[in-house]
Design goal:
Blueprint (H helix, E strand, L loop, with lengths): L2 H6 L13 H64 L8 H21 L16 H24 L14 H8 L18 H16 L13 E5 L6 H11 L3 E5 L1 H4 L6 H15 L5 E6 L14 H14 L10 E7 L7 H6 L2 E4 L5 H11 L9 H10 L5 H12 L1 H4 L17 H8 L8 H14 L3
Parallel strand pairs: 1-4, 1-5, 2-3, 3-4
Protein name: AAA+ ATPase domain-containing protein
GO molecular function, one term: ATP binding
Organism: Vannella robusta
Length: 461
């Protein structure tokens, strides 16, 4: 390379920028501008951080100063209270009197906030008024007082009796819930036949209520009445009639009402039952126990201890040494298995009435009573025929037969959705004859013979 060529060539060595490269120089200028902006941003960030740090330090110092001032004022208040507790000097200067008046004025301002009854506290231990908490507490007090008033109103008057002191209120409430409501009326006319049973119940329950002065001493009525016989003959209905017609307080008790899964609760329930009956404000109380054989079965060596204690307590409460012979409490038991009742319980049921199957006249009356609100075409002769054909039927069997015969006109309908009620045909004798094929007598002759034998041995009639 000659000297002229070297002079004319562009100089690019040693990192120097040629003069004919203006774009490259502008690029470096842009980099310098960016660097300067980044440095300025960093500087601004540092300044803002320093400002926020100084602000936080000022806040902390101000908070510390306020707390210190509050503590100092509290200490001064304590000192002032101590000074007030000490005997005051009657000789004071004008400035001392002014300071004392100022302290009393400030103290009077602080008392309302401290006596608000709120548990919230501010800095320095001073109480502050919380209106929401005070309103909540007042509402709770009102609710509590209203609840107590309702409980006092709902509380039964028998709990005021001294004899109820040893009875748990929970058990007494369970016994009171078993009282049968007298809104469901069952009269003596609803029971077909059983004239001797009705007469016995009238002598034991109704007549003593009408003329109590005639039934006392040796003439006082029996305290136990046992109704036994085949199932479905009207034993439970007699109990309902006692509740409706006699006007007595009727306790409808079952075995589940007196038993419990806890040991010792069963005999307590039995005691609560008789105590509630004695304290109840009524002239006559009737305790009706359906299926009494499940509760008072014969005692044996294989009995469970809890079951034995329940039986013993029941027998003691029925006829124990501490019972008043003049109290008007009648225990009525109904059972289908009288031979399984314990001997001591059998002795306490002085009246043992056999409720047999209905006779022809009673069955005819039952059919007539069951069809009185239904449209039928049965003549008196048809009723006599059905009374003869239902020999050996119990009362529940006769009711099932009438219900089955009443479905005869419904089964004869072709389109039940569009038929008019007035167009449904009446119940006929053919419907009863068809129902006899589906409804049979439920009591066998062998069972009837057992009832008759037990009645001859232990029955009252």
């Amino acid at each position: 390379i000659t000297e002229a060529e070297s002079l004319n060539a562009p100089t690019i060595r040693a990192g120097r920028i040629p003069q004919d490269a203006p774009k490259l120089s502008l690029l470096f200028e842009d980099k310098n501008v960016q660097e300067e902006s980044r440095v300025s941003k960093v500087a601004v960030t540092k300044k803002s951080f320093a400002y926020s740090r100084n602000r936080d330090e000022n806040r902390r110092s101000n908070s510390f100063n306020r707390r210190s001032a509050l503590r100092k004022s509290q200490d001064e208040d304590d000192e002032e209270e101590e000074d007030d507790s000490q005997p005051s000097n009657p000789f004071k200067t004008a400035s001392e009197r002014l300071k004392e008046d100022e302290r009393k004025r400030l103290k009077g301002r602080r008392e309302p906030s401290g006596s608000s009854g709120s548990s919230g506290k501010s800095l320095g231990g001073k109480r502050r008024f919380n209106p929401a908490a005070s309103v909540k507490e007042s509402c709770k007090k009102k609710q509590k007082s209203s609840r107590e008033e309702e409980e006092e109103k709902e509380r039964h008057p028998i709990f005021d009796d001294e004899r109820m002191d040893h009875i748990e209120e929970r058990m007494a409430e369970l016994i009171l819930s078993e009282i049968l409501d007298s809104n469901v009326r069952v009269g003596w006319q609803d029971i077909a036949g059983l004239e001797f049973a009705k007469k016995s119940v009238m002598e034991i329950v109704v007549y003593p209520l009408w003329r109590p002065e005639l039934f006392h001493g040796i003439r006082r009525p029996a305290k136990g009445l046992l109704l036994f016989g085949p199932p479905g003959t009207g034993k439970t209905m007699i109990g309902k009639a006692i509740a409706s017609e006699a006007g007595a307080t009727f306790f409808n008790i079952s075995a589940s009402s007196l038993t419990s899964k806890y040991v010792g609760e069963g005999e307590k329930m039995v005691r609560a039952l008789f105590t509630v009956a004695r304290c109840f404000p009524s002239d006559m109380k009737v305790i009706f126990i359906d299926e009494v054989d499940s509760l008072l079965t014969q005692r044996s060596e294989n009995d469970i201890e809890a079951s034995r204690r329940i039986k013993t307590e029941f027998l003691v409460q029925m006829d124990g040494a501490g019972n008043d012979p003049e109290e008007r409490i009648l225990v009525v038991g109904a059972t289908n298995r009288p031979q399984e009742i314990d001997e001591a319980a059998r002795r306490r049921f002085m009246k043992r009435l056999y409720i047999p199957l209905p006779n022809k006249a009673a069955r005819r009356k039952m059919i007539s009573n069951l069809l009185h609100d239904q449209k039928h075409s049965l003549t008196p002769q048809d009723l006599d025929i059905m009374a003869l054909k239902t020999k050996g039927y119990s009362g529940s069997d006769v009711a099932g037969l009438c219900s089955e015969a009443a479905f005869g006109p419904i089964r004869s309908l072709s389109d039940i959705r569009n038929v008019d009620v007035a167009n449904v045909r009446p119940i006929s004798l053919q419907d009863f004859e068809s129902a006899l094929n589906g409804i049979r007598a439920s009591v066998s002759d062998k069972d009837l013979q057992l009832y008759k034998e037990w009645n001859q041995q232990f029955g009252s009639f």
